[in-house]
Amino acid sequence: MSKPHPTRGRRVAATRLSLQDPSQYCGPIEPQVPLTLQERLLGGEMAKGLPGLDLAITIVSLTEVGSTYPSRVRLAARKAADAPSAKTAAALERALRRELDRDDLADYQAIEMSRVADLLICHQAAFGSAVANARMAAMAFNYTGRLLREGRAAPVWLALRSAMMFAEDASEEIEALRHVPEPRYPRLAMLNARVSNLSSELSIGTEAQELVEVDRAVLDGGVGADGTVDPEDVAFLDRLIWKTKPTAAPTLVVIDQHALDHLPGSASSGSSNASRGSTPRAEFQPLAGVALPLVHGIDVAAVRAVLDREYPWLSDLTGKLLGDLVGGRFARFQRTLLVGKPGSGKTRFLRRLTALCRIPSLVYSAAGVADSAFGGTSRQWSTGRACVPVQLIQRTRTANPCVIVDELEKAGTRRDNGSLIDTLTALMEPEGSSAFFDPYIETEVDLSAVQYLATANTTAGVAAPLLDRLRVVAVPDPRPQDLAAILATLLPEIRADRGQDEAWCPDLDPEEVAIVAEAWGKGGSIRPLRRIVETLLSGREALAPRH
């Protein structure tokens, strides 16, 4: 029995990632600008999902005032911009193809006209042209062959999927091409090697797709959610046993064993010639050379069930964040910025998410922060402190805690005393986080496993370097139908703040809930909802009989 190809595991992993997150090959799910032809052949979307808008942006260079493009092209482009359709897009493509044969075109004009002409096929297909869809299917199949020849396993599956989609949309009869007799067998023989490669890549894609389905089943509360397995799933699970071999619990050394030896004082007592108090060496020596545990093995199905019950309006967000935890060696959320109106429950949700996942977390308010203290301060100052992630690791004895940066758009922009933005930017880079220099203990620390989630009311005030490093997710407002779920968590909080138990502050009765619902109206911020509930409870207490 021959051994598997040594790179098969890597190819399976790459294809699996391309299926879970195809955006790295075909652009964002909701692109703001037109994508390239290659991205569209792999399944890329139109700008904001609107073919007309995408077309208008694509041809804007041809319609600008003072444009020097040929007059036929400018006229056809204006017609396509004014009335976008498969017909006007096809007319513009024909005009572009004809004019491309001219010898007096400038190089930049020829390049732009050729690029636009190719993209116009995509627009015609999006507007429903069967012929254009057939052309797109042919290009996608040809692109598949090119990817196979280049040995790029991951996007092959995406190219085939797109080709099949375009082929299905080419439903009308197309004029048959004139048949040219030629021997069949020599051509078929030439395709043998390519078909063999295709078979191999498809088997890899199938294997990766099976893993994705398992991930989705767990996330959706399927296989294993209640500890049971359907009989028909047994054979499928048996095939996946080799993928789930038990491994040792993951750990990470944050501070190397001898990294603190240069600091003054005793590692055991912390005494030094200059001070009788604790020293940085004594404070952090317990972490030096210690393999700290990484939180792992989270039951994402159970966590999802709780969050969907408590935060039903954030179901899509729950799926995204918990999806980050599936299949990893340890828990690691993708760096994410939640953007929503004040009171939409962003910070409350993140606190609850990390608590349910048993990931230690810290909420760090960025509002008004105008220095680099987050990244630590020199021990030469009397108020010197280690960076916030190291302090969090020290307190929790966990190598992958989560820092929740609240109100990120309100961070200060001055750099007189350093900048929170610059510090976060460095920590969100793999190279910067794995060897971050802490000025307090004067050594490099490995913070690569620390997780970052953030909130903001708008992206307008968030620095561009941070936006480039964060997945931005829009957070919707709570809806009127979410009132019962919100009250189920809001009332216990109010009781805790008042120091009362359920006997002294019982749940709202149906009439009180109706009053709250009417006052809250169409939903929105949780903060006024809390004030409404507190006002109702105060009125309840004022009307209570005195004995």
Can you describe what's shown?
The chain is built from 23 helices and 9 strands. It is an alpha/beta fold. Among the domains are: 300-474, 3-Layer(aba) Sandwich (Rossmann fold), CATH 3.40.50.300; 480-542. Strands 4-5-8-3-9 form a 5-stranded parallel β-sheet. A hairpin with a 4-residue loop joins β6 and β7. It is globular, with a radius of gyration of 30 Å. The model is unreliable at 1-6, 173-181, 222-246 and 269-277 (pLDDT under 50).
Question: In a nutshell, what does this entry contain?
Answer:
This protein has 547 residues and is of the alpha/beta class.
Keywords, separated by commas or semicolons:
single chain, 547 residues, Rossmann fold, five-stranded parallel β-sheet, two-stranded antiparallel sheet, 23 helices, 7% strand, globular
Q: Can you summarize the main beta sheet?
A: 5 strands, parallel
CATH architecture of one domain: 3-Layer(aba) Sandwich
Count of helical regions: 23
Helix content: 40-55%
* Outline type: globular
Q: How much is the radius of gyration in Å?
A: 30 Å
CATH superfamily of one domain: P-loop containing nucleotide triphosphate hydrolases
Low-confidence stretches: 1-6, 173-181, 222-246, 269-277
* Average pLDDT, all residues: 80
Quick one: how many beta strands? 9
Q: What would CATH call the class of one domain?
A: Alpha Beta
Instruction: Determine the strand fraction and express it as a percent band.
Output: 5-15%
Lateral arrangement of strands in the main beta sheet: 4-5-8-3-9
> The CATH topology of one domain is what?
Rossmann fold
Distance separating the two termini: 88 Å
